[in-house]
Amino acid sequence: MGRDRFARQSLGSLYEHIKQARVLMVGAGGIGCELVKNLVLTGFGDIHVVDLDTIDLSNLNRQFLFRHEHIKMPKSIVARESVLKFNPTVHIEAYHANIKDTRFNIDWFRSFNLVFNALDNLDARRHVNRMCLAADVPLIESGTTGFNGQVQVIKKGQTECYDCNMKETPKSFPVCTIRSTPSQPIHCIVWAKSYLFTEVFGISEEDSPELDNSEDSENREEINKLRQEAKALKRIRESLGSSEFPRMVFNKVFKEDVYRLRGMEDMWKSREAPEPLDYDTISGLTTKIEPTISHNDQVVWSLEENFFVFCNSIQRLSSRLEALKSNHSGDTPVLSFDKDDEDALDFVASSANLRSQIFGIDTRSKFDIKQMAGNIIPAIATTNAMTAGLCVLQAFKVMRNSLDKARMIFLAKSTERVITSEPLRLPNPDCAVCSVTQSRLIVDTSRATLNDLVHDLLRLELGYGDEFSVNNNLGPIYDPDLEDNLAKSFNDLGIVDTSFLTVIDEDDVEPRVNLVFSVANKSIPETSKPIALPEKLDIARKPKQRSQPFPLQLGNGTNDTNGGRKRRASEASFDTEPIKKRGRLDISHPQNPDDVIVLDDTEGGTIVIDD
Amino acid sequence: MNSSDAPAASSPAEANHRATVAHDMTSNTAQEQQLPGQHITADEIALYDRQIRLWGVKAQEQIRTANILLVSIKALASEVAKNLVLAGIGSLTIVDPEHVTEDDLGAQFFVTEDDVGKNRAEAAAPRIRKLNPRVAVHTHNIPLTTQPPSFFSSYQLVIACDLPFATLCAIDAAARLAGTPFYAGGAHGMYGFVFADLGAAHDFVIERDRPNVATRVGTREGPTRTIVHVASKKDGDKVKEVVTKRETYCALLLANAAPLPEAWRRNRRKLRTVTPLLTCLRALWEFEKVTTGPAGVENGLGMGAINPSAPTPTTATTTTSTAAAADPANPTTQQPAFHLSGRHPSPLSPPDLQLFTRLATTKHSELLLPAETLRSAFLRSFLQNLDAELAPVTAFLGGQLAQEAINVLGHREQPIQNLLCFDGEESVGMVVQLSPFVGEDGAGGAVAGSIDVGMDGMGAGGTGKDVGMGFGIGPGMGAGAGPVGMGTGIPGLAMDMAGGGPAAPMAGGMDVGMQNVGADMGGVDMHNMPVSGVGGMGMDMNMGAGMGVGTGIPGMAAGDPDMQTAVQNMDPTGVEGMNAGFGAGPMGAGAGAGVDALGLAPGMENAASAVGEVASATGMEGQSVETGAEVLPNPGT
């Protein structure tokens, strides 16, 4: 009788393993709250929770371990406190930290029986995937978006890893579409957020790392003109704070620039030409507008209302920037767009709608614009609850050592089922992350140089030829044409404990598979070499014929009414049409933790990243 | 008005807490003011942002005003409560007569060690409230079956979890009569189910890309689903189709007797994929029934958990609910030993295992499933998991059930039709359509058995206008066709006025073996509406239900309001009589129980007198009780 009666009854001998298990959960958000509840109730004995985030109002509709009074507190800490009440007999450790922190090294990962990912971004997912492969710890990966969810079991050498198939990259748009020929609301929203807002209040376009304004022969002239426009806007920025400022900005971007565009007659042969707006004409019509209009985010504002919100928000933002300047020395302060900053959102929403009006595009409500500008993914408690439940059910199979019974599961409702599943797939032999030789590399990072690795270890000890490269997460640090770094120490190169290095053999004849080193920093006496392998390595050669990508194994039941996997799969393929490489604005902001990226893997099951 | 609410608050402090919550709800920030043209506040939009982006403000409006009744709160229902309260429903009313036990701590996260021995609903409520102060959470431990149908009609949804089959059927019947959609759920360790009875017509909207061939109104998408409206909507440069579909549901009792869909029965490969969990659930429900014998005891309302291994019920305390209701100050007197007469097999008892295996084999072949898909290993595993609560499974089922509920309130998305079987070992979540409705060819669906065409003696003769398919439920569960009379009622009397196929008299069959107690389904008939002119099956499903409780406690019997309409259409003169109810058969013969018919149709004026008259007319020891006595307060208040 008692708390563990049912767990013993249902799970039998597995329950003893569960009680002894030490598990890691990365992420304490939507899935995480549900997951840690399940783990604690099921009786997992030692649970470690890592999350760097703090609690936000918009979390409370689904992250049930958090309440209003917890807003701004660390998720991991509050989750631990809430969930301990459910079962005081388990041990929980909470870390308010980034999982990429060096203290969470391979040895630490190796101390767990099982790792759960409950993350909201690609970067952290990939990192944990790599760490689990390197530490040879099974990983339960999961994600949700709206009504859809997905659970995947990853075990080194036995299943696909997270990177075995391509993840969709965030959408981007050609600069000319955004700046000259918008045709959809999203184009105007990107313009308002990534061009206008940053030009007026933020880091100007030229300095922004996100913008690639490279030109080609076709768009050179246009790009030059756009550059001049941006410069003119920068000059207007010097009047920031004056009462004339809204009028100057308005007439510049919604009137003069539009007249210039209109003048390019070739552009408007197959499109409707834009209609410029005039500040003085509209301002006479705004007397009846309620000042609270900007709070009404559900309705689509009229032209006058957009005008009003534009002028009002530009003033609000200007005063904020002025105030910042007065208490600030050194660099000029700037504002950056944040979807939860009402002033910034009002500015972007009204500017986007004014631009839409000019180009004859549908205008949108502030609520809708926030979603597009902030890449907000719908998220609900029920999907997270179901997904987290399935994660633990898969964990049972891993812990019973019956990986053959584990399944890749999708929440995808049809008239005949509420989930679809398929067997786990074998590793992709071409995967650059898991189909590699892995080794630890013991390094005294203060003493060892790149040359110690390239020459002494790779060439002399392991027999590499001339053609190979050494890469960190940003790209190559050594290849035959890049020898500048050879004399630098690991520390100088930013290679520290927990860093990964990939050696890619580019030999023409029988190249080796990629070699992935996980760096373990140890201080080594001067008498010994500063770099060493913990054990002898046997690196396989790449198969001659590169195998085809994995065949799709769709679940067989999609007699659905709401759109199941098959439909999403076909939709996904539309999203992955070839994209040009240059001259694109990237609308994602990876530095902003609130931004969420949706990924479609090759078979169309959407992995999502709940914030 | 709120006397029955009072027992829920175990202390004045708790009552105060509720008042405080109510206060908080009205005095938040400035943004709490409602914006013009909408009821939802800006604060709520900010709080519910991520879900409104999925289902829209309109659906959220419907969710926020919904009053939901949750019957029995164990692990699965805790998950449901969590998800619904987070989603921002209007109110949640939890009814549970049981106490928290040590075992409950395993998967029920709203109760702690300190709550052991307290009423389960009352123990959970304060923590549920904390999840979302905007949602009013009430508790009751009033016997449900003594409530008039108006009790159920004040809810937009009734959800009952982890209860005996007979209890689920009784609640389903009452909800159906009140026109309230009903969900049932149950968890057994690695296994579980969700059942939906959303009434004769549940409409929902789906949006999709416009197909090449335009969708036509009136298209039937199987035996239960019809397209009732099609509109289009511009979404950027795409045109979307907004399709309203209508699903017709049947009661749990009928679903449990219905065959698999015809298309499945004709497809051997399909049958091989049907989870044996379906068989085991039916066998379990049958086990409950057959283990209800003379040893079974009245439980007052058919509520309460099944004791998995103790077949001996405790003393037959016949605490009538009337007496209990008269003593609201002392909630404990309201808690008779709620052992239902039925029980579950014990994995340690060889006779139980034998019986269960036999029942499972029978159910499996009744479903026309291939023998090889019912393996002994599965039976063992199922029995091993019986009545256990496992957090990941209840989380999955509770997520599913709550999402269904939310979609039903918002009239969005296709709901399950009608039984979801979840197997956490095999990662299977299969939706099985178990419905007596048949396809357009009008054939099939009949279950062997007797033809039960019978009317309660009170009915006046039929006019023979309407020929319908009677689906009566008697000892043998029968379906058959028969000429059926159109009744003409006598005003003011509770009458069995079977307008189409009449209800079978109920003693025995559906009396789930409980002597005086239980859920009695009056029967079901599907009108063959003359308007159609052909032999197609009408969409109208009528059901009468009778529930008798204890000695001299009023039961309920009523017909689906739809049926009244149907009858009205055919014979306006019968209206008043029809309103008096339908489908009550005498039951529990010899046990001294009276079945009192209560009219349930809207507009029924003289129910109480009708009760009395029927009781006396049938010469039974019926005792009528004012129906108003135990009406619960409106959950919204």
Description:
The complex is a heterodimer of chains A (611) and B (637). Chain A has 611 residues and is of the alpha/beta class. Chain A has three domains: 5-168 and 379-423, NAD(P)-binding Rossmann-like Domain (Rossmann fold, 3-Layer(aba) Sandwich); 172-373, Ubiquitin activating enzymes (Uba3). Chain: B, domain 2 (Arc Repressor Mutant, subunit A); 437-532, Ubiquitin-like 2 activating enzyme e1b. Chain:  B, domain 3 (Structural Genomics Hypothetical 15.5 Kd Protein In mrcA-pckA Intergenic Region, Chain A). Chain A has helices at residues 5-11, 14-20, 30-42, 75-84, 106-110, 122-135, 175-179, 185-201, 220-237, 245-263, 279-283, 303-326, 342-359, 366-373, 381-399, 450-461, 565-575, and strands at residues 22-26, 46-51, 91-96, 114-117, 139-145, 148-154, 172-174, 407-411, 419-423, 437-443, 468-472, 475-478, 500-505, 515-521, 531-532, 584-586, 599-600, 606-607. In chain A, the strands form four sheets. An eight-stranded mixed sheet of chain A has the order 3-2-1-4-5-6-8-9, with helices on both faces. In chain A, a hairpin with a 5-residue loop joins strand 17 (599-600) and strand 18 (606-607). The model of chain A is unreliable at 207-211 and 545-611 (pLDDT under 50). Chain B has 637 residues and is an alpha+beta fold. Chain B folds into four domains: 6-198 and 390-432, NAD(P)-binding Rossmann-like Domain (Rossmann fold, 3-Layer(aba) Sandwich); 202-247, no CATH class; 259-278 and 289-385, no CATH class; 467-630, no CATH class. Chain B is built from 18 helices and 16 strands. In chain B, strands 3-2-1-4-5-6-10-11 form an eight-stranded mixed sheet, sandwiched between helices. In chain B, strands 13-12-14-15-16 form a five-stranded antiparallel sheet. In chain B, strands 7-9-8 form a three-stranded antiparallel sheet. In chain B, strand 5 and strand 6 form a beta hairpin. Chain B starts with 11 loop residues before the first helix and ends in a 20-residue tail after the last helix. The model of chain B is unreliable at 1-37, 294-340 and 440-637 (pLDDT under 50). Chains A and B meet through helix 1, helix 3 and helix 15 of A and helix 2, helix 3, helix 4, helix 15 and strand 11 of B. Chain A: Pathway: Protein modification; protein sumoylation. Chain A: Residues 216-243 form a coiled coil. Chain A: Residues 312-370 form the Ubiquitin-activating enzyme SCCH domain. Chain A: Residues 15-432 form the THIF-type NAD/FAD binding fold domain. Chain A: Belongs to the ubiquitin-activating E1 family.
